[in-house]
Amino acid sequence: MIHKLAQRGLFVAALIALAGCNTVVMNPSGDIAQQQSHLIMVSTALMLLIIVPVIFLTLWFAWRYRKNNTAAKYEPDWDHSTRLELVIWGAPLLIIIALGLLTWISTHLLDPYRPLTRLDASRPISAAVKPLEVEVVALDWKWLFIYPEQGVATINELYAPVDVPVRFKITATEVMNSFYIPALAGQIYAMPGMETQLNAVINKAGVYEGFSANYSGAGFSHMRFKFYGTSQADFDKWVDSTRASTETLDRATYTEVAKPSEREPVRRFGKVDADLYEAIVNRCVDRNATCIREMVAEDEARATRAATSVSLAAERSARRIAQASIDEVCITPTKKN
Known about the structure:
Layout: H1 2-19, H2 31-64, H3 82-109, E1 118-120, E2 123-124, E3 132-139, E4 142-147, E5 152-155, E6 157-161, E7 166-172, E8 177-180, E9 188-190, E10 196-200, E11 206-212, E12 224-230, H4 232-243, E13 248-249, H5 251-257, E14 267-269, E15 271-272, H6 276-281, H7 292-329
Parallel strand pairs: 3-7, 6-12, 13-15
Antiparallel strand pairs: 1-2, 3-4, 4-5, 5-14, 7-10, 8-9, 8-11, 11-12
């Protein structure tokens, strides 16, 4: 008896504890994440229009036509109902069409590469507003954030002013990761030798959790950072305090920072090499390495030369064939004696 009461008490305590949880995905603080949350709820509601009736009817049929219910009507020769067929096929078809339209519209509207057109549902963004740019690098196992316009960088610390559009440019060093701040927007993959983008805005001041949502090795579970949504004045103060750091993030420092480490503390750099991020994306931080963009340019030039060579060879061949045809037509017939 005591054991059962203890179990029930633990269950109730767990429910009380969970009641205070904030489901950030469904209650975010950024407009993009808010739209994604709305999309989840609408999609779920549409699917429940099919799931709930199916479950209910399954239980109802099992109860109505149970073995000992002699009052149930028995129709062994029944095999078709046009109205039932219309409901069974028509309702799911309409819901699939609705989900398809919703998905198509939302995919384009919430495209992470698409510049923002609004701060929230009631406030559009002026075309003159310039977004804050942040260059994000997923390292083993930490996050590097570079602010090119401010000339500063941080490890495992991200700041952005409230109601200011932010354009993230995202890449990785060795392993594919996933950049995710649930309160801000959906996750975006970070891949070596490539750049992905995310446009988002935070609408409420606060401290939010950011992390990698893609397994990337031993230190993956500690690959977390704090995202601070602040006023513009507080953001400017943070930039000034970061600029006061005596550390410089150049290629040599980055090479050391990029070495695998876990539970990396917050670190700030007062100066950053202007071309460092491009070197990271193109995998040529080491000046002796060939940049990806140079390899691509070389491949394109080689392909152009090959295409030109093939074209010239084809042209010469066509000329020879044409000349042979002309010669054959113009041969003077030999007179017979």
